[in-house]
Amino acid sequence: MTLVNEGCCPLDAKRKIGDRRFRGIFLDNPLRRLLFPPKKFLEGHVSKGMIVADLGCGPGYLCLPMAAAVDGGGRVYAVDFDEKQIVAVRKKAARNGLSNIEAHSGSASNLGFIPTASIDLVIAKGLLCCMLDHEGALREIHRIIKPGGTVYISVARFTGRNDQRRVGKEEWERILAQFRVQERGDGLTSRWAWVRKENAV
Ligand SMILES: C[S@@+](CC[C@H](N)C(=O)[O-])C[C@H]1O[C@@H](n2cnc3c(N)ncnc32)[C@H](O)[C@@H]1O
């Protein structure tokens, strides 16, 4: 896989495309905290003792509050292919005295460090539409999630038609069909869903 592009602009589609990187300030800033408070988003989905994986975690907008919420036996795997994001997560975790975050730089399509069927909740917010290997990431999500576990997935609605990272409407439906959908919606800028992996029979 080529990792050429450093930007987050739709014109990237015209360049040689790799997985997409973001500047931390776009992912964690006062405006986002106002419009999309992380604690409110996580309410009812995260509790003490859970094992969580935040795939494409960025600079820690969700994985830090999740680590605080699961503390007391729980743990968070924070994964991002952009090393800078992982460095930011580690710094913030240390600053906040959170020792239950395991931060890894690497692709969501290669999660060998997470045991099979070990995760209660996977968060993949804005991940798939930023990467090329959707199948690989979904294969890993299916592998690491416990039967009955929950997955949150969201993808950008508006990406260039020729952007190979794009998750179009049909692909989105195919992804959701792999799970039991709990709640779904179309926001202004993204499609999202809370889904469950069926219990093993
Ligand atoms: C739209 S941002 C979302 C960040 C975070 N989930 C949030 O909501 O704040 C997408 C993130 O996915 C990461 N990413 C892109 N391709 C990836 C890959 N193959 N594996 C893991 N992370 C990836 C980017 O570096 C970026 O941090």
Main sheet properties? 7 strands, mixed
Radius of gyration: 16 Å
The total of beta strands comes to: 7
User: H/E element string?
Assistant: HHHEHEHEEHEHEE
Attached small molecules: S-adenosylmethionine
Shape: globular
Helix content range: 25-40%
Task: Spell out the CATH superfamily.
Answer: Vaccinia Virus protein VP39
Low-confidence stretches: 1-14
Strand order of the largest sheet: 3-2-1-4-5-7-6
The fraction of residues in strands falls at: 15-25%
Structural class: alpha/beta
**Averaging pLDDT over every residue, what do you get?**
90
CATH architecture: 3-Layer(aba) Sandwich
What is the CATH topology classification name?
Rossmann fold
**What's the helix count?**
7
C-alpha termini separation: 37 Å
Q: What is the name of the CATH class?
A: Alpha Beta
